[in-house]
Amino acid sequence: MDGPLLRAVAPTPCVTIQDGGRRGWRRFGLAGAGAMDRLSLAVANALVGNRATEAALEFGYAGGEWTVEASSCRIAIAGGEFAVTVDGSPLPPFASAVLGHGQRLRIGSAAQRVWGYLAVAGGFDIPIEFGSRATHVPTGVGGLDGRAIRAGDALRLRADRAPNEPERRISAPAEDAGPCRLVLGPQQEFFDEHALALLLSGEFRVTWQQDRMAYRLDGPRLRHLSGYNIISDGVVPGCIQVPGTGVPIILMRDAGTNGGYPKIGTIIEADLGGLAQKRPGSTVHFAAVSVTDAQAARRQFLARLQLIAEEVASPLPDPLT
């Protein structure tokens, strides 16, 4: 393949191309996909001078090894303080750096974080499908042939050379230690007052059953009043479904567009990315808010995404020298 490339040498299993996600296609049965943690995607893009929702590589727990096949390429990694090296030399977290042709990038793990994002200045030259470059593996739509990145894959870059500008950095975004906010419903009538009280007062833990489709929690069992099957209706990322076991299941970015279990609540957009970053064993607490409060929080969240570019600082000494 000709042109500037980023080549996957030894990627981890869950690396996909993700951006801000699709809009307007759920009614046709196509999920929105997109970054699990949209704030971290925006941070990675701001560090290399891209718009907040530009497509980047999303990886889970670690990113593996990559090599540059371009004259030069500015990169940045966000999501957590992942252990990153270039040709064996460490890179500081939440900072941009320029890699030359043939240099090898290795992305290890980060303590207490799950999802990371590798952004490149100018972005990836990936076709748009249904208004987005986001990969939705269950339907084979978007990204690189609708699938996870494999060893040997070559990702086209839009730019062969990094822009001549100072490197950028940003302080690690503060983690919100508060409860995860949700709007009750739309089927809370399937549960008694005790189940609702347990949801809002109990302590839940993230289990190892977590992926881009859903996170299964462990904790108090949320019992149904009578029955747990409903006529399948629409779902969105953040919906908390409760099957017959009483164990909550939180739908995430790759979830389908309808489901047949009662939904006791829906996590608000502003808090879903923070929940996605919780590793197995992490505790989760919930707090109910009104629809009006949820809408206000979403407006504040979207404004925050657009302002991240103003928070990056420059110049930064070249971390590779």
Summarize the structure.
This protein has about 325 residues and is an alpha+beta fold. About 15% of the residues lie in helices and about 25% in strands. It has an eight-stranded mixed beta sheet with strand order 20-13-14-17-16-19-12-21.
Characterization of this structure:
With 321 residues, this protein is of the alpha+beta class. The chain has two domains: 5-170, no CATH class; 180-304, Cyclophilin (Beta Barrel), CATH 2.40.100.10. 14% of the residues lie in helices and 27% in strands. It contains four helices and 21 strands. It has helices at residues 38-47, 193-201, 269-276, 291-307; strands at residues 5-11, 16-18, 56-60, 64-69, 72-78, 84-86, 89-90, 96-100, 104-107, 115-120, 154-156, 180-184, 204-210, 214-218, 233-234, 239-241, 249-251, 258-259, 263-267, 283-284, 286-288. The strands form four sheets. It has an eight-stranded mixed sheet. Strand 6 and strand 7 (89-90) form a beta hairpin. The longest helix has 17 residues, at 291-307. The chain starts with a strand and ends in a 14-residue tail after the last helix. The model has no long low-confidence stretch (mean pLDDT 92).
